[in-house]
Specification:
It is a single chain. A hairpin with a 6-residue loop joins β3 and β4 (about 105). The protein has an 8-stranded mixed beta sheet, sandwiched between helices. The relative contact order is 0.13. The chain is of the alpha+beta class. It is about 35% helix and about 20% strand. The chain contains 9 helices and 15 strands. α1 runs antiparallel to α2. It starts with 12 loop residues before the first helix and ends with a helix. The structure holds 2,5-anhydro-1,6-di-O-phosphono-D-glucitol and manganese (II) ion (MN) (3 copies).
Length: about 350
């Protein structure tokens, strides 16, 4: 049994992956993938923590496919993740918030994995030193993503892009792994491979992620609601009524809820996972489909929240059942403790 207080018996993410692979050889592929993801997250954590001293704050001067002003750290963290996912040879196709199109990984040799990621989530907070994160999701293809040389030679860039796109546009229910890394007062990496959620904390002195939250389970009910209430005049009525009631202690529990919202999905979801409650970015009069992106924000986070015993919905449909039409599709999302999400959905149906 691991004992984090005994340096000779500490359970690190690397050791956890080895032990899981010993139990289930299919985990072998994830072992190498998690090796590259954790390296990338340690690098991004390092970049974010020192950004104020290394002239890495502020804008990169480009507008991304989302129409957002890219931060320098959006671009840099995207490059860090692209490079680390390439050298594993396991990722055949990769898609990112910061890239218009999914791309075929040339270096891939056993390329069954399609990896999607948001390299720096909550990046508008990074100049103020407020929590940010990385979100990743992994789909497994039946056959190799590789395109045989002779076939690829005859294909146009658009045909290759089309092939990558078909592999990328999958519902969250097809995810085989998902997780996030939180860059905050602690650096936490929470991950699921479909049988529960394991939480790790970076020990900066050793440079290893240590298992600190085994088998994470979200509380069935919380007393925190986490929405951007600045948008509430444009919300549908039912949601306005839900928030009004719970903040006055007129919801099912009769207890007053408190509001916590930091504007980084990774931070807000991480707190919801550990403390319970409800987080959402609903649609509103201005954003019919909400703001958060289905493929690399809503779906991976929903997979993880469900694996911890929580729920995640658009208000009427389960997020993991949604089929993305484009790489950067947005979706309304309400997730968290099952009893809180169920209560909120009752207001939305009225
Ligand atoms: P990103 O920084 O990756 O573009 O994501 C920002 C998202 C998400 O992190 C957060 O929940 C949401 O934007 C906050 O949006 P508002 O500032 O509109 O509340
Ligand atoms: Mn962004
Ligand atoms: Mn994001
Ligand atoms: Mn981002």
């Amino acid at each position: 049994r691991f004992d984090n207080s005994d340096p000779s018996r500490v359970m690190t993410l690397t050791r956890f992956m080895l032990e899981e692979t010993r139990k289930n050889p299919d985990m072998q592929d994830f072992e190498s993938l998690m090796g590259s993801i954790q390296l990338a997250c340690k690098s991004i954590n390092n970049l974010v923590m020192k950004a104020g001293m290394t002239n890495l704050l502020g804008l990169a001067g480009e507008v991304n496919i989302q129409g957002e002003d890219q931060k320098k750290l959006d671009v840099l963290s995207n490059d860090v993740l692209k490079n680390s996912l390439s050298y594993t040879g396991r990722c055949g196709v990769v898609a990112s918030e910061e890239e218009e199109h999914p791309w075929l990984v040339e270096e891939a040799f056993q390329s069954k994995f399609v990896t999607v990621f948001d390299p720096l989530d909550g990046s508008s907070n990074v100049d103020a030193g407020i929590a940010t994160g990385t979100i990743f999701g992994v789909f497994a293809e039946e056959e190799e993503c590789l395109i045989p040389e002779e076939e690829a030679n005859g294909m146009t860039i658009n045909q290759i892009r089309e092939r990558c796109l078909i592999r990328t546009l999958q519902p969250g229910s097809n995810l085989v792994a998902a997780g996030y890394c939180l860059y905050s007062s602690s650096c936490h990496l929470f991950v699921t491979f479909g049988n529960g959620v394991q939480g790790f904390t970076l020990d900066p002195e050793v440079g290893e992620f240590v298992l600190t939250h085994p088998d994470v389970k979200i509380p069935s009910r919380g007393k925190i609601y986490s929405f951007n209430e600045g948008n509430s005049p444009d919300w549908e009525e039912g949601l306005q009524k839900y928030v009004d009631d719970v903040k006055k202690g007129q919801g099912e529990t009769g207890k007053k809820y408190t509001s916590r919202y930091i504007g980084s999905m990774v931070g807000d979801v991480h707190r919801t996972l550990l403390y319970g409650g409800i987080f959402g970015y609903p649609s509103d009069a201005k954003n019919k489909k909400g703001k958060l992106r289905l493929l690399y924000e809503a779906a991976p986070m929903s997979f993880l929240v469900e694996q911890a015993g929580g729920k995640s919905t658009t208000g009427s449909e389960r997020i993991l059942d949604l089929q993305p039409q484009t790489v950067h599709d947005r979706t309304p999302i309400i997730l968290g403790s099952p009893e809180d999400v169920n209560e909120c959905c009752k207001y939305l149906k009225e």
